[in-house]
Amino acid sequence: MRTIETLGDLRSKRVLVRSDFNVPLKDGKITDDGRIRAALPTLTRLVEAGAKVVVMAHLGRPKGKVDPAFSLAPVAKRLGELIDAPVTLAKDVVGESAKATVEALKDGEIALLENVRYDARETSKVDEERGELAAAYAELGDAFVSDGFGVVHRKQASVYDIAKLLPSASGLLVLKEIESLRKATDNPERPYGVVLGGSKVSDKLGVIANLLKKADRLFIGGGMAFTFLAAQGHSVGKSLLEEEQIDTVKGYIAEAAERGVELILPIDVVVAPEFAADAPASVVTVDQIPADQMGLDIGPESRKLFAEKISSAKTVAWNGPMGVFEFPAFAEGTKAVAKALSEGDMFSVIGGGDSAAAVRLLGFDESTFSHISTGGGASLELLEGKVLPGIAVLED
Ligand code: ADP
Ligand code: MG
């Protein structure tokens, strides 16, 4: 992949950078700034090179319309604090304000365009529409640095199309991510385990077919587990369930058996009558989930089982919390998996925005894991062995 060095002397050059600033917000406040911190090495490098740095990023899903709830203002403020320099936020994506903001930049200064997903063309499936927006971005820069690892699996204007219009290179975060994730995918030390959880069930079910060809052990927790339990014939009450995927999942279970992949599912779960922090929790075995309750975490026996099978693996990739870790009563499963990874003697990779936030929120020392990825979907697709458009476009 082309590195920043290949762009030559950047002094006084306008460098467009795609970063991933899609941070979790609560009441307008950033609850985990990990992704902003992860972007600092590249931004600092460019500032030190005397470039005029123009950052493009998205936040949430404003669906192609201006929506103040998704403004990058909190990000601009936090970024300014972290790099200890003012960051100007343009009022639009490629309009008059963006142009004037870039025009006013001095060498070594940083500006941020407004949420690129305010413009519907950013994520359009129509090549011409994305191309048109990319051309407008290109007017604002002399070179492009792709550093938003969390979006490199997306064929979007600020990720993919722009790279074809300007001299382009991968940033330091993207380089580091690719290097670490390749360690887990190309020739992993075995046993190789993949732990899946979280609530984006349909997205993640899709990756299992490929993971079954690569992993020795597949752990399923979080919201995903209930579609598996249902496929095994258990009633799952009010738990998250993808009914139309049950047949597919039955296929995965059969294929895992054929391939000799060990499939590790919860044997007990923590249930509650509703999705709430103070909902009364109880533990049941998976064949006794009451019809009026929902599973919000893996149970104590499952925690033991998962931890044991994780600890004896040599490479483990983890994506998706084991339960609703945001509520302390349902955080134990996620904690147990994080602990096994943190204490284990293995190459450990954590992907997924919420999973990465969870280990920090639960107080784990980030340096006890081999790699915490800033990308969810992107890291999963790499683990699957897919070619990512935002990476391929940077390769010669
Ligand atoms: P990641 O961002 O790590 O890829 P997801 O976005 O797929 O993970 O899912 C994270 C969310 O999944 C968390 O907010 C967590 O509360 C939720 N979750 C985990 N287990 C369950 C469950 N059993 N039922 C409902 N939600 C769950
Ligand atoms: Mg998430």
TrEMBL record:
<feature type="binding site">
    <location>
        <position position="154"/>
    </location>
    <ligand>
        <name>(2R)-3-phosphoglycerate</name>
    </ligand>
</feature>
<feature type="binding site">
    <location>
        <begin position="20"/>
        <end position="22"/>
    </location>
    <ligand>
        <name>substrate</name>
    </ligand>
</feature>
<dbReference type="InterPro" id="IPR001576">
    <property type="entry name" value="Phosphoglycerate_kinase"/>
</dbReference>
<feature type="binding site">
    <location>
        <position position="204"/>
    </location>
    <ligand>
        <name>ATP</name>
    </ligand>
</feature>
<feature type="binding site">
    <location>
        <position position="117"/>
    </location>
    <ligand>
        <name>substrate</name>
    </ligand>
</feature>
<dbReference type="InterPro" id="IPR036043">
    <property type="entry name" value="Phosphoglycerate_kinase_sf"/>
</dbReference>
<dbReference type="GO" id="GO:0005524">
    <property type="term" value="F:ATP binding"/>
</dbReference>
<keyword id="KW-0963">Cytoplasm</keyword>
<keyword id="KW-0324">Glycolysis</keyword>
<feature type="binding site">
    <location>
        <position position="295"/>
    </location>
    <ligand>
        <name>ATP</name>
    </ligand>
</feature>
<feature type="binding site">
    <location>
        <position position="326"/>
    </location>
    <ligand>
        <name>ATP</name>
    </ligand>
</feature>
<dbReference type="InterPro" id="IPR015824">
    <property type="entry name" value="Phosphoglycerate_kinase_N"/>
</dbReference>
<feature type="binding site">
    <location>
        <position position="154"/>
    </location>
    <ligand>
        <name>substrate</name>
    </ligand>
</feature>
<comment type="similarity">
    <text>Belongs to the phosphoglycerate kinase family.</text>
</comment>
<protein>
    <recommendedName>
        <fullName>Phosphoglycerate kinase</fullName>
        <ecNumber>2.7.2.3</ecNumber>
    </recommendedName>
</protein>
<dbReference type="InterPro" id="IPR015911">
    <property type="entry name" value="Phosphoglycerate_kinase_CS"/>
</dbReference>
<comment type="subunit">
    <text>Monomer.</text>
</comment>
<feature type="binding site">
    <location>
        <begin position="58"/>
        <end position="61"/>
    </location>
    <ligand>
        <name>substrate</name>
    </ligand>
</feature>
<feature type="binding site">
    <location>
        <position position="35"/>
    </location>
    <ligand>
        <name>(2R)-3-phosphoglycerate</name>
    </ligand>
</feature>
<feature type="binding site">
    <location>
        <position position="35"/>
    </location>
    <ligand>
        <name>substrate</name>
    </ligand>
</feature>
<keyword id="KW-0547">Nucleotide-binding</keyword>
<dbReference type="Pfam" id="PF00162">
    <property type="entry name" value="PGK"/>
</dbReference>
<dbReference type="GO" id="GO:0006094">
    <property type="term" value="P:gluconeogenesis"/>
</dbReference>
<keyword id="KW-0418">Kinase</keyword>
<keyword id="KW-0067">ATP-binding</keyword>
<comment type="pathway">
    <text>Carbohydrate degradation; glycolysis; pyruvate from D-glyceraldehyde 3-phosphate: step 2/5.</text>
</comment>
<dbReference type="GO" id="GO:0004618">
    <property type="term" value="F:phosphoglycerate kinase activity"/>
</dbReference>
<feature type="binding site">
    <location>
        <begin position="352"/>
        <end position="355"/>
    </location>
    <ligand>
        <name>ATP</name>
    </ligand>
</feature>
<dbReference type="GO" id="GO:0006096">
    <property type="term" value="P:glycolytic process"/>
</dbReference>
<feature type="binding site">
    <location>
        <position position="117"/>
    </location>
    <ligand>
        <name>(2R)-3-phosphoglycerate</name>
    </ligand>
</feature>
<dbReference type="GO" id="GO:0043531">
    <property type="term" value="F:ADP binding"/>
</dbReference>
<keyword id="KW-0808">Transferase</keyword>
<dbReference type="GO" id="GO:0005829">
    <property type="term" value="C:cytosol"/>
</dbReference>
